[in-house]
Amino acid sequence: QYVLYGDQIIKRDQASIDMEDRGYNFGDGIYEVVYIYGGKPFSMEEHFKRFAESAAKLEMKLPYTLETIIDLTVKLIDANKIHNGIVYIQMTRGASPRNHLFDRESSCLITGFARKMDPPVQAQENGVKTYLTEDIRWLRCDIKSLNLLGNTMAKRKAADHGCHEALQHREGTCTEGSSSNLFIIKNGTLYTHPATNLILNGITRQHILTIANEENVDVTEQAFTTDDLLEADEVFISSTTMEIAPVIAVTGDKKGTYPIGPITRFLQKKLKEKIN
Ligand code: PDD
Fold first, then answer.
1. Which of 60, 93, 155, 195 could form a cystine bridge with 201, CB 3.0-4.6 A?
2. What is the pLDDT at residue 202?
3. Does the model's pTM come out above 0.90?
4. ipTM
């Protein structure tokens, strides 16, 4: 297995991370996950545009141009001969004597790996159960940062209740999943939380909004409550790794069940067409 380390593709067992890498000590870094379909990364440009935006928000300097980072990512995919799978690229603020104060001029370290993974067809076909819980994360969820404890704790809680994903809410306003965006459909209108500091503006989310506009599905980027969630006609989640997965049940802070509806199926189909 090969990994990306700086601008080199090396064997995984030859890579080493410093004890005082800021990513390791502080979670001081960012990442992206890109899906590879039939050897081709999907929406790579969009992912790396967001990568650059996350870096800018944290005042991290990219060590190479975006084009170089994309080239290196393609090399990483090829070296690992990935047909279907994911490529994970992260950037930390690099190694320096541990100190909360960061230096804007730090040389950042980019690393990455790629892994075979089949699309989760089971979840896409049959839907997933979800666990509704309080959103305990920080106020910059728009940054795709390595700090994911709020997310991982929510996911653990969901799994402990036999659910595939956690849905999070801030005092009754639904935000997003622990690693996905959340949509509901009510009376033919698609709702999702606006792309504010409270959610990650998913690349899949953006594709869905574009498709909805192209296909004349009524759509509004408007926050909705946990009661709206319960009363929704259809619910689904989206992410790079899931694409669109219908939500068939919510448990936790509120409880409800949903059929897999026609608009969810339609958007799933249109997204697949975009991918292929
Ligand atoms: N997670 N919201 C959160 C909190 C996420 O972590 C993700 C993706 C999304 C969906 O974004 P996108 O459509 O760009 O994948 C929304 C990735 C897949 C992960 O951490 O593995």
1. 195
2. 98
3. yes
4. 0.99
In sequence order, the 6+-apart residues with CB closer than 8 A to the CB of 56 are none
Query: Of residues 57, 81, 144, 272, which has the active-site annotation?
Result: 144
Cα-to-centroid distance, 168 and ligand 1 (Å): 14
Q: What's the average model confidence in pLDDT over 166-185? A: 98
Q: Which is the closest atom of ligand 1 to the Cα of 144?
A: 6
Residue-level pLDDT at 41: 98
Asked if 144 is an active-site residue, the reply is: yes
* Burial class for 167, CB neighbours closer than 10 Å (0-12, 13-18, 19+): buried
Ligand 1, residues 200, 205, 241, 242: which to mutate, most atoms within 8 A of Cβ? 200
Q: Are residues 128 and 41 in the same domain?
A: no
Q: Are residues 106 and 162 in the same domain?
A: no
Report how far ligand 1's centroid is from the alpha carbon of 97 (Å).
31
How many domains is the chain partitioned into structurally? 2
The protein residue with its alpha carbon nearest to ligand 1, atom 9, reads 180
Alpha carbon 107 to its chain's center: 25
Above pLDDT 70, what percent of the chain? 100
Cβ count near 61 (within 10 Å)? 13
